[in-house]
Amino acid sequence: MTTAFRRPSDRRVSPIFLGIVAVMAVSGWAVWTDFAEQTGFAVFLFVTAAWIVSLCLHEYAHARTALHGGDISIGAKGYLTLNPLKYTHALLSIVLPVLFVIMGGIGLPGGAVYIERGRISGRWKHSLISAAGPLTNVLFAVVCTAPFWLGALDGVPPVFRFALALLALLQVTAAILNFLPVPGLDGYGVIEPWLSYKVRRKMEPYQPFGLIAVFALLWIPEVNGVFFDAVDALLRGLGVSEVETYCGLDTYRFWQEWFGDQAPGCAMIR
Length: 270
Prior knowledge:
single chain; mainly alpha; 12 helices; disordered N terminus
């Protein structure tokens, strides 16, 4: 019988993760207090660091749920350290998600953890492991929008409010995309244990291409419009206006100031 020994280092929070949290805290303080000379750059650091933190916690949720489900190999793989470099390739986990934020304000599902499914019995456990990640994004969205739907925005600087609105946009888009029942995404992982063996075998070859197919569809204007209409409706239900998310993305792209491309309306609000 194979036994996995637990070492303290398997669960020790990574210094890399702590460093990212520190960047998030300091840049968030700089945005709140208007301490930064370049407010847009501070917003960029704050939102990017917070987004990477959420990616790490998304994958940690998968890993932790799998550990309790029976996969005792999780710790040895470094998944419980919250180190973003442990969640597959750094390009897929960090660089591409940040690029997608810059390009269009979409929360791209980031890295992935390799779970030894053979160690886990029970369909409910498998479904819960897949659902744990996007449920973390849902929780983040609730936290980011709490000041909006609680009506607690008095005293919150406009630029910080815009940054929270952008973070909420990223979490909502990430949750929706992850919950799509498309092979390779978490939504499919939720329903996969309940499918017949024949269907699962047919879907298996398509899993590496599911995310690519989704983003190819999002390039179609009609599909993109429906998707973002749904996102905007959810955010409005949480008290976040389209103007606030737009200004958040506009401020995030601080380099637009150099070319005079930032929206004048957002600058006036700030």
